[in-house]
Every structure is written in structure tokens, then in C-alpha cells.
Amino acid sequence: MYGLRATLPLIFNTPTPNEEFNARGIASKYNVRIGDVPQAQLLLSPRVGFSWSKAYGDSRLMVDGGAGIFTGQVPFVWVVNNYSNTGVEQKGLRLVGRSEGGEIVESAAQFTSTPSPTTMSNTTQMLNAMNSKFRYPQNFKANISAEIATRDGWNVGVEVLYTKTLHNAVFRNIAIEPTGEEVYAVGANGAVPKFEKSIKDYSAVYYLDNTSKGYSYSVAGNVSKSFDFGLSLAASYIFSRAYSVCDVPSTSSSSNWNRTYGLDLNNLPLSVSSYDIPHKVSFVATYAKRYAPLFDVSASLVYQLTSGQRYSLCFGETVDFNGDGVFGSTLMYIPTEADLAQMRFADGGSAQKWNEYIEQNRYLRKNRGSFAERNAMQAPVEHSIDLHLAHGFYFGTASSRKIELSIDIMNLGNMICRHWGMRYNVGGGRMQPVTVAALEDGEPVYRFTSGQLTPDDLLSRWHMQLGVRVVF
Q1: pLDDT score, position 188
Q2: Which residue, 76, 70, 68, is CA-closest to 9?
Q3: Is there a single domain that holds both residue 162 and residue 292?
Q4: 191-210, pLDDT tens digit by residue?
């Protein structure tokens, strides 16, 4: 079997060029133009597959596989940023009155429909640009599976899937450049590159480009059986890993840049993806029976165990200690006990609390003296049990049409015990247990805040749903 899918994304107009910016040295240095959008490109997705089966008495072995290039939904929302943030169509202006002793003594400039720059403004505009040769996301996928169906109704299968990134998005802020200097977490340890803005009258210049780095793989096994008296059982286990440079967590370039955490946000290494879920176990039990001419009953119980959410450990920042213009996106340094003795702290208890926090986590203990890797942390394993009960009332003894009443209980464990079924949601995929409170003599001053994970109040609750449906 083979096939070919073709996708042709078209953009029928272009943003207004920002000729003032395009004439600057920064534009030629990075070969960037405000007003460029992707050129028309035909995205070809060839695919090939095979299927083979053979009978062994009353049992049958089936093997399937395939490989191909896959193109997802074209993310035009990324391109929209380049229309709205050209510095030409719209501009932001914030006017702040002059105050003395906490009281306003001079009002801000009067609002008009045609605002002009003023020395009273403290707002600068962001710009969005992109590579005119930008390629929309595509992946190469290959899989192979084998399943055996036995004569007594058992089905046992295994599948291997591999995915390689061909084209994905990566974001940079070209208004931020390294100075060649470094800021140290302590002494000469834990060097963080120092940055500065290379262009003063724009807050940021976000540039959308491509990366081919990234891959994932998974190995899955499943077993199932249906019994004559109405019971069906199924169980599965999936082991998977996923690695990426940018997980594109947002629709805006600014969020995609500052929420992909690292030491140098313009030069990110390949690391564990925020979508990495190493382990998933599922078990499903279903029973269905038409126990009378006009009535039937069905019930199903679904249990799932999944690895917890991936998240990063970053420094909180009340001062932009490395100059990258972002507060809280720099990965946290994991100090040794010797480092802690040399570090500067804003209070007397932070060093001890930070050390205790490190010692209670295996990953942190193992990696003392280095920076935490992006998405290296993981929330606790999550367990969930869902229950479905239904009763059907048929329109006639020979009819398949019926009215069905149902009740669904999601997260049944939490209904039984308030401590069961806990789920965790780390906002922004980042936790900031330590804050850089100040800089003294070029060295950070730290304050330990809290590194405790707390269950999500909504997701950890049980829910019930009542339903009525007509089945024809």
C-alpha cells in the first residue's frame, strides 16, 4: 500500500514592511526583514505500508507496518504575529503622570486619537519577524505492529513507533545578544551567560525559524479477550520518550520564546520534551447484557496509571540578573553543600531549606554542582479510575432502538477517599523554588521560597455526569 498527500498553504497578502527597521544594521546582520512571510510551498507527504497475516490452525498472526511523512494542521496563527507586530500598523504608548511623595503632581499627556512619541512614555514596541523560507511542521513516522488472535478469543499485540522531526518551529529574540561576560551562581561555579539589548527602541524582536532536531519513540503491548457471557477485558502498557528543542506551548512568539527554559534562550539544546510521558498503564473491564426482551445493562471500569507532568526548575527573579529581558526563565543551578556555604542569601534560613529540598529529590542529589536540565523534573505518578453504568429500554422485543439512561463517575477513587486520584498541574511547566532577590558586587543574592508540589484543586476532584440518549 502506498499513497501521497499534498498540502499547499497559501497566504494572499503580506504585512506592511517596516522600512525603518529593515534599513538598520541589525536587520542585515541577521538577514531579517519585517514584512516577510513564508513563500508558497507544496508539502508532500508520501506514505507506504504493508499488511501480512497467516493462519496457524485456529489462530492467526497479523503483522502491519508503514512509514511516511506527515503534515499536521498548518499553524497560520504563528504567521499572524507578523501582521500585528510590525511596528507600523499599531503602536503601544503608555503615559504615566509625574508623582512626588506618592501623589501625582503632574498629569500625563492628554489622550488623542493620533498619539505621538513623548518623553513621558515608558513603553516600547515588540516586533515579529520570520524566515521567508520557513517550512511548516512535518514529521517522519515509522511503525510496525504484530498481533496474534488465538482460537479461544485472546488477542495479544505489540507495536513500535518512531517519529523524527523534519521541520519544527524555534523562536529567538534577536534584540538580545551575549556580551561575552558571565554571571556566576557562586564563585567560579555555575556560569550563566550575560546578555544585553542590542536595540533600545524596541522591547523585543522575535524571529521564527526552523529546527530539525527532535524525535520520539514508543513501545506498546496490549492483551484483550471477550467472553461469551458479556464480559470484555483489555490491558495495555506504553513506554515512550520524547525529545525536542521547542515544544511551542503558545500561539504567540513571545510566550514560545520565554517559556522554553534554558541558560541561553536563543541557543537551546535538545532536551526532554514537556510532552514526554514515559509510562502509561491502562486496564478496561466492560460488561454488557440484554437480560430481558425490553431491557439491557452495561457497565465499564477504566483504570489508568500515567507518569506525572514534566516541568523545569528555574530561578525566580526580582532582578534581571543575566540581562536577557525575561524574569524567571533561567534554569536553576543545583548547588553543592560547599557552594551553599559561599552563596549570598537574603535571609538566614534559605540555605538550609534549599539543601533539604535538594536532598529529598533523587535527580537533584545526583546533579549537584550543575544546572537542572529543561523538563528534567516530573510530578508524581497519577492514578485514575472512571466508572460508566447504563440501562437501556427497548422500543420493542425485536427492535434495536432504545432509550438509554447512564451515569458516569470520573476519578472514582477521589469519591471513595479524598486523598486518592490526585493530579498535578505545574503552571507554565515551570517551578521557581529559589528567587534571585538582588545583585551585590555582581553576584546573585538568593532567597528560598517554596518547591512544594500541590495537587490541582479542580482536576483532583471527582465528577459525575448523568446522561440520556436515544439509540436508533
Answers
A1: 80
A2: 76
A3: no
A4: 999 999 988 888 899 999 99
pLDDT of residue 92: 63
What type of residue sits at position 220?
A
Tell whether the model's pLDDT for residue 91 goes beyond 70: no
Domain end residue (candidates: 225, 246, 262): 225
φ, ψ dihedrals at 254, nearest 5°:
-60, -45
- Reading the block at residue 18, the C-alpha cell is 517596516
Q: How far is CA 290 from the centre of its chain?
A: 45
- 315 lies in the same domain as 169: no
Residue 103 has pLDDT above 90, yes or no: no
Does residue 47 carry a pLDDT above 90?
yes
User: How far apart, in whole angstroms, are the C-alpha atoms of residue 315 and residue 446?
Assistant: 9
Segment of 18-22, 390-394, 451-455 carrying the highest mean pLDDT: 390-394
Do 213 and 284 lie in a common domain? no
69 and 153 inside one domain: yes
Q: Is position 324 within any domain?
A: yes
b/e per residue 92-116 (b: at least 16 CB within 10 A): ebeeeeeeeeeeeeeeeeeeeeeee
In terms of Cα–Cα distance, which of 260, 264, 248 is closest to 375?
260
Q: Based on the fold, state whether residues 341 and 443 are members of the same structural domain.
A: yes
List the 377-378 sheet strands across, edge first.
344-345, 443-448, 430-440, 310-317, 377-378
